[in-house]
């Protein structure tokens, strides 16, 4: 049988685009199907009235993002396209922000921790440094933290380490519940990305890399894949009611979506994919008529659960990168507390935006009067929730035989970030190449000619 396609990739997020580029570099013809009208997935950016609005929250580091920087170079981007943020991160405590979160000097300054907690922070950092080699962010299931949740691991230290550092970090950036999510991926990731002072962002929007990568690929937008089945020597996919065959398919989508597309037919799906649950994200972007921001100069302000019931983080996007708002104006993103997302989503966008903006007034006085528009972004499946149960199943999933249907996404990498997506894309491509090894170099077009 001659397949309709050589290789199909489902999803034009960073994981799918990374897989597609790697497969094309190895001589294959790749077709990317994307249900949305543009690439990027959870790394989309919107242009509204002169404001550049990121739908997610993206930071990348000069260290620990090897796969991402490789894609940056392949896309022809320069260091100027990925500027350093150059602003601190703060945590709210005692009625004011405290800068220095995520910096080594926090042992001395506290960065929101009480003096009695600083020895615990030093002990935590010392332990992490001594076990750096074992805290492998590519294999968090094998770290000394084992099956500890964030809350369990934090009990070894002063309560402040959980309440004013680990809990707000995990909630703000991943939407995690510290009592449910595993500690190993968080600690490994914090070690890998280094201090906040080294973090960078994309000039022109967080979709810059995805947009550049998609230009050189056969990417078909507005095409909804409804079903994917593995037939051993080939795969089938139903796209908008039409059945196509392909030598291989990469499902670069969240694990719950992959399970729905395969309808549980994959014998490996009952393990790690089924255990890979997701956390939602609810974000309100506030366009302002002036450049307001939390005092202290931080671009991001963490609001711990013990201090603030509705918000988990505020990001001054115009401080993160000046091109996010017109000159003389401001753009602030409000991220909801993970526990409150269900009720906010049920309240509707207008009401949810009003509630979050009202809560933010405490941290950015005058926000209400400066507000000109709000844009709500709700991702029901935003970030993979890496639980101890999922970690226990991950090793066997990675060792499974290569098949005609493979998976990509930050959930595969157990690293909820663009770097996790990029690494998983390269990993999926390698598995597809291994599956097709007997016919290496023979594309669908070449087989037709033969």
From TrEMBL:
Residues 14-433 form the Amine oxidase domain. One of its GO terms (molecular function) is oxidoreductase activity. It comes from the Bacteria. This is Amine oxidase domain-containing protein. It comes from Streptomyces filamentosus. The lineage of its organism: Bacteria, Bacillati, Actinomycetota, Actinomycetes, Kitasatosporales.
